[in-house]
Amino acid sequence: MTEPLITVLIADDQDLVRTGFALVVNSAPDMRVVATAATGKEAVALAAEHCPDVILMDIRMPDTDGIIATRTILAAPGPTPKIVALTTYDNDDYATRILNAGASGYLLKDATAEGLTAAIRTVHRGGSVIAPSTTRRLVGGHASSPSIRDTTAAVGFTAREQDVFDLIVAGASNAEIAQRLHLAEVTVKTHVGRVLAKLGVRDRVNIVIWAYRNGVVR
């Protein structure tokens, strides 16, 4: 049985950028562009109309910027898309604000075509992606090769929550965690929710950032 295509909305105020991203996305066999928007306001309207799986969101746009558009789209009723910020600016303030608004990723526009399509697949599966240079600064310059320490005593994880936490930090999606731990994916989602609540963070991206900043990953 053929897997359904990943539907993508592209929001960017530059026509050539929208065209280029659309060519990259439509060249992938497992995804297609359903709409493009030139402003944040258009992105909000088209997201409601087309219910895309993933939105590639520019940050600096006229009318409504990508940060406000992201927050508005994710607060709307109905299916919730995954949003990847795509920007020219490697800026910590932009990254923090749009990730806090609920975006699942933050990439620079110099990403390769393969990197872009891989990022779309990753967030669609429930993972997250951040440009490497941004990640290094957000986590305070820690080394990129993680060594996970036990956090059960520190935050009160159960043994299973610890397993889920470790795999999130290692970059696994919910489906991959389910496979590794021999659990139903709905059970993994429950454990992820408990990990988020115990750490006091809102999404998987911030679980990773928390892990680095608190010395859990070195």
UniProtKB/TrEMBL annotation:
Query: Where in the sequence is 4-aspartylphosphate found?
Result: D58
Give the CDD domains listed for this entry. Answer: LuxR_C_like (cd06170), REC_NarL-like (cd17535)
* Domain Response regulatory as annotated: residue spans: 7-124
Keywords for this protein? DNA-binding, Phosphoprotein, Transcription, Transcription regulation
Q: Which residues form the signal peptide?
A: none
Q: Which domain of life is it from?
A: Bacteria
Please give the biological process terms from Gene Ontology that the record holds: phosphorelay signal transduction system; regulation of DNA-templated transcription
**A Gene Ontology MF term for this entry?**
DNA binding
PROSITE patterns per the UniProt record, alphabetical: HTH_LUXR_1, HTH_LUXR_2, RESPONSE_REGULATORY
Positions of the HTH luxR-type domain = 150-215
Identification of the protein by name: Two component transcriptional regulator, LuxR family
